[in-house]
């Protein structure tokens, strides 16, 4: 661990470190650099950090073995309370990211059917509806030759996808104003404060956050009422995640008379989870799409292989790709090189990390037999440090999609548990299948255009 100061803990270790990093560094970059400097040489990759007064002590985990233990069903460790201050204002309350115990299990079980592989595959046509608008917007920018924020354009696109798949409602936020999408983007801007730190001290901030939350709750609540009315009249198409959640909820109420209005407690819980899906799903998937474009532009040999796979599997005429996928969505399961490109982009640029609370009864054990106590600490599985670590990844900073296509005997073969963008264990990412499907469809409809964007 870094040199400890009795007053400032390990905070002084960051001062010289920050000076060596670019000005546009992100928080994980700083901690990754810290881990490289101070991890044990006679044990697995882990660093203890006294972060007072900003948090309880941290155990920063950069080892697949220790990460697997921290997230295992055997220990069933709770999510850290630190996550609540970040996620709850965005979701509107306790959500799947911050819940623990039976409450989390009930909520997870309610939404599991809507995120299954087969069900997400059935949503292909609806994802393509939004993707075609996205492609046209990109082509408009390409024809104009202007400079624009790819992340912003992609975020609006993913917002429309998630709105369609979860609520059975097209938001159309890519082309026009939508109250739900706009309110969420505003809430993120005033809450995350990464690029506009002055907003933290703006006296209007509490009102803006309250009003944005009110707008989101009202919009989602109205949509839930519509879906419930359709469900009670047996008119529901059962094509959206919320329809399946309604079915699951009402199945537990089968001995009760069907109410004319949706139960308000369920409505509140569902609204919170949908807000979470919209935030977590659109932001992380957008960054993955942008990084895929960046990596493909930087590696023309990979782009050529990707285009060749799409020609062979999806048809050589790109104008027919959308219709081909609508007719045969299982084609998305037949493009392994595309999957490898996405997985490698997620390895190099993981959108998040994982955190668990420690426990007096839990000590992590590395492959050398070293024990690591966790009582009174937060365990931070730092995905970027783990997925860039040379002990686990040959050529860790190189973009090599082929590492996902080789067999176990190959030096490039990924180490077990080393790839964790969606995490592992019982609390893995609920939306990972939808995220992968979104990126596959996006690449299928874009990468063969020769015009530079």
From TrEMBL:
<keyword id="KW-0732">Signal</keyword>
<keyword id="KW-0349">Heme</keyword>
<dbReference type="InterPro" id="IPR050121">
    <property type="entry name" value="Cytochrome_P450_monoxygenase"/>
</dbReference>
<dbReference type="Pfam" id="PF00067">
    <property type="entry name" value="p450"/>
</dbReference>
<dbReference type="GO" id="GO:0004497">
    <property type="term" value="F:monooxygenase activity"/>
</dbReference>
<dbReference type="InterPro" id="IPR036396">
    <property type="entry name" value="Cyt_P450_sf"/>
</dbReference>
<keyword id="KW-0408">Iron</keyword>
<feature type="binding site" description="axial binding residue">
    <location>
        <position position="429"/>
    </location>
    <ligand>
        <name>heme</name>
    </ligand>
</feature>
<dbReference type="InterPro" id="IPR002401">
    <property type="entry name" value="Cyt_P450_E_grp-I"/>
</dbReference>
<keyword id="KW-0560">Oxidoreductase</keyword>
<keyword id="KW-0503">Monooxygenase</keyword>
<dbReference type="GO" id="GO:0020037">
    <property type="term" value="F:heme binding"/>
</dbReference>
<keyword id="KW-0479">Metal-binding</keyword>
<dbReference type="GO" id="GO:0005506">
    <property type="term" value="F:iron ion binding"/>
</dbReference>
<dbReference type="GO" id="GO:0016705">
    <property type="term" value="F:oxidoreductase activity, acting on paired donors, with incorporation or reduction of molecular oxygen"/>
</dbReference>
<protein>
    <recommendedName>
        <fullName>Cytochrome P450</fullName>
    </recommendedName>
</protein>
<comment type="pathway">
    <text>Secondary metabolite biosynthesis.</text>
</comment>
<dbReference type="InterPro" id="IPR001128">
    <property type="entry name" value="Cyt_P450"/>
</dbReference>
<feature type="signal peptide">
    <location>
        <begin position="1"/>
        <end position="20"/>
    </location>
</feature>
